[in-house]
């Protein structure tokens, strides 16, 4: 199991710890796979907390990696849009009906996947 790691930073900059994109993607796949079984109410609560945690860990890392690139860099712009979308999804009020909660969790899972993609792309594109 290979894991992408963040580049080392100079002292005095943001703390960029490597993200375990394998674990993050596995959690997202739990809701997004074509053959995914719908989680029970309790499983959904746990999964939503896990996805929220993954997003909260990934956002500052992706944002800091993007900040290292030139302002007109396309991967930087894409990553920052993904960060904004993930923040928006984290800020939404929780809904109560199970189908709505599943839809919300699936949206957050897509954001977690996107953050993983941006992280991997930015680690490869670093200056």
Describe this structure in words.
The protein is mostly helical and 127 residues long. It has a domain at 40-125. Helix content is 67%, strand content 0%. Helix 1 (21-32) crosses helix 2 (41-67) and helix 3 (74-91) runs antiparallel to helix 4.
Keywords:
about 130 residues, single chain, mainly alpha, 4 helices
Number of strands: 0
Order of helices and strands: HHHH
Helix content: 55-70%
The fraction of residues in strands falls at under 5%
Look at the helices and sheets and give the structural class: mainly alpha
Shape: elongated
Low-confidence stretches: 1-12
CA-CA gap between termini: 26 Å
> How confident is the prediction overall: mean pLDDT?
88
- Our Rg estimate from Cα atoms comes to 15 Å
The number of helical runs is 4
Query: Largest beta sheet, briefly?
Result: none
Secondary structure elements and their pairing?
Layout: H1 21-32, H2 41-67, H3 74-91, H4 98-125
Offer a quick outline of the entry.
With 127 residues, this protein is mainly α.
